[in-house]
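Title: Comparing notes on inverse folding

I've been comparing how different people in this forum approach sequence design from structure. To keep things fair, I'm posting one structure and asking everyone to reply with a full sequence. Here's the target:
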């Protein structure tokens, strides 16, 4: 996956990937912040993207489920 933050100064570089951010937060004793990060930055957008793909691809789903996903 692409780097989330990539810094290079005077030939030295450091980068962190989106998946590594919760690991670093837990290591620094920010477990609750890591959980919020996972939910709001990774899981909800992933669900929304899958829902949009399913709705646009005209997959056969029950009408109630389609309405719920569209909301």
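Reply #1:
Here's my take.
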């Amino acid at each position: 996956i692409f780097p989330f933050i990539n810094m290079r100064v005077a030939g030295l570089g450091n980068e962190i990937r989106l998946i590594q951010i919760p690991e670093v937060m837990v290591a620094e004793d920010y477990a609750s912040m890591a959980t919020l990060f996972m939910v709001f930055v990774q899981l909800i957008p992933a669900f929304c993207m899958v829902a949009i793909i399913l709705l646009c691809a005209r997959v056969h789903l029950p009408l109630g489920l389609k309405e719920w996903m569209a909301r």
